Amino acid sequence: MKTETTMRSVTVTTRKKRSLTKDHMLAIGFLIPSILLVGVFVYGFIGWTGYVSLSNWNSLVPDFSFVGLKNYLYLFGDFRFQADLRNTLFFTIMFILAVIVVGQILAILLDQKIQQESLFRNIFFFPMALSFVVTGVVWQWLLNPSTGVNLFLAKLGLDSKWYTDTTIFPAIGWGKIEFGIPIAMIAVVIAAVWQMTGFSVAMYLAGLRGVPEEVREAARMDGANEFQVYWKIIMPILRPITVSVIIIMAHISLKIFDLIYAMTGPGANFVTDVPGVYMYETTFRGNYYANGAAIAVVMLLAVAIFIVPYLWSSRKGEA
Amino acid sequence: MAIRSFTRPILYALLIALSCFYLMPVYVMIITSLKPLEEVTLSQMWQFPTSLDFSSYSEAFTKLAPNLLNSFYLVIPATLLSALLGSLNGYVLSKWKFKGANTLFTVILFGMFIPYQSILIPLIQFLREIGLYNSIAGLVFVHVVYGIPITTLMFRNFYASIPDSMIESAKIDGAGFLGVYRFIMVPLSITGFVVVAIWQFTNIWNEFLFAVTITTSDQQPVMVALQNLSGSQIVQWNVQMAGALLAALPTLLVYIFLGKFFVKGLLAGSVKG
Could you report the per-residue pLDDT of B20-29, keeping only the tens digit for each? Predict the structure, then answer.
């Protein structure tokens, strides 16, 4: 096949060579607008945001005088931002753990050659087609402390204050805040998990379907029970998928804004506040542009820690 | 082989219980939206309405109709443009590779992961400067630009599966850059276009941050208007739920009828090429 192509192309070498270079230039020409757009609107604007974060622009009128790290120092000493960092940390951990565990369980259940598989799959997937705003609006009501699921839970003696709970557990003094799990965040985690597990189910299901039946059969022949087959054979095979799920979910969780904005807002004592909400409110409600820019830079750095190594490794993989 | 048969009832019981959890918000949304306001009390939240009342739908529709229209004006051009741009980029980056093409692709790809807060302040300054601030056209532009990474990724992965030999032979037959695109890539990537279009449609429809910061009042897409419904002092939950259903309907319908492609897009956008 290859020799045939080479032989055929010999006859048209001269014409092909010239048209190739011309076409190659055309190809690159088509790419240039996108390169410029991404260059300016992603990288250029990130640079500009970084510059704003070092400026004195904390009113309606732009003021680009350089103030160094003043805005960052203010933020890290700020009660609200410290609370945001704590909330993001625990939200991210709870959210990722739940998405992985629930996603894997659902994927395994769906992989048992069940009847009506596509119906069940669709039930677990459809929330992903919804907006975080819709999810927030609905779950705000479902987890309303005086109604919703509490009408059932109260009968079991389990009623909860959900997102209005201001408890921090275990409340270790740290900076200006109490450090620990903000209990109110659990309500947001439930809503976020409801919306996003479909993603991990889809990923794990694709992974499970890729494991050849012989691999499982061989393990069973060696006397492994179903549980051991999953724990020892399937789980390690699914590990790269878990890595992808962690990274995708981490970046969603670190920049989350709309779900919390629609569902709870910052909450009393900022128990459900996150940097995304703070950035929006301080920049576009309070006109503290430089502070907002500094929050955005912190968010970007947090996301970059996860994403850059991931992108870099995938680039090498295909070189 | 699946789990042994005696555990099957447990398996189905688990799946049904979990399904109930996933469908619970939908149940509450639907029954609440069909209730008259006096029945929307906290204690009756889970009960069926005593009579069907569609007035919350007409009220929600009156309030949201202009914004629903805005969303369509936004989503349709933005989806088409970003699919076209993405397919050209994906074509170049998969079939006309040049030195550094993979690195360039990675650099472009980073743009889909950034928190958009980190470009928002300059973006709004820029849109004000060129007169597109507070306009649907401005939002279309924004979504096309920030859609470049994901659409390029999807098409690049998609085109990678088209064998190079096909392109070689088309070139030998005299087809150039655009000829190969028009007569080979486009016809072979109809599925790709559907996947990307559904993905962009869903995401742009559901997007909130750009919408809430770039547009005000009568230019706002539906998600912002929905959020504003709950911003008022007395929340009419029946209207709120009807509004949420209306706002979610277009993407839900797309999911119901074209869900397979949606999930394909989901996997294509997450698994590295």
Answer: 999 999 998 9
